[in-house]
Amino acid sequence: MTGHGEKLSRKAELFIGALLTQPTVTAAAQTVGVSESTARRWLQREEFQERYREARQEAVSHATARLQQASSQAVDTLTSVMGDPTAPAAARVGAAKVVLELARGATVEELEERYQELALVVEELRQNVYSARSRQVYS
């Protein structure tokens, strides 16, 4: 790990994995059998930080995919509880509340996306108007 662009050692890669699963740097270092000072030295290196950042992003991406896969089952469960006349009223109301909150959240997300699209269009129009005015001034 001495030169720019070099691959990390096997132990450093294992340490990255341990950082994703252990609660502390010390515990992660112990898991892979390196000293805490070595671990902290690795953490200061740019190429290590970059690889660690990539690994965290991958972990979040995998977790998000799993949540998306489970969301169908979650909605089925909520609607089942909501529609079950034998379920306690509090459970039915709670399930209905969650469904409504999730639906509202989806609507807000869609509105935010549309807002971003409109903001881009407005900015593009401003640029076009500015360019047209500039051409008139210099004509």
Q: Summarize the main sheet.
A: none
What's the total count of β strands? Answer: 0
| Structural class assignment | mainly alpha
What is the helix tally?
Answer: 5
Order of helices and strands: HHHHH
Strand percent estimate = under 5%
Determine the fraction of residues in helical runs and give it as a percent range: over 70%
| Overall body shape | flat
Distance between the termini: 59 Å
Poorly predicted runs of 5 or more residues: none
**Rg, please?**
26 Å
Look at the structure and give the mean pLDDT.
Answer: 87
Explain what the structure shows.
This protein has 139 residues and is mostly helical. The protein has a domain at 1-70. The chain has helices at residues 10-21, 25-32, 36-44, 46-83, 89-137. The chain starts with 9 loop residues before the first helix and ends with a helix.
Task: Record keyword descriptors for this entry.
139 residues
Q: Secondary-structure blueprint of this entry?
A:
Layout: H1 10-21, H2 25-32, H3 36-44, H4 46-83, H5 89-137
Helix pairs in contact: 1-2, 1-4, 2-3, 4-5
Quick recap of the structure?
With 139 residues, the chain is mainly alpha-helical.
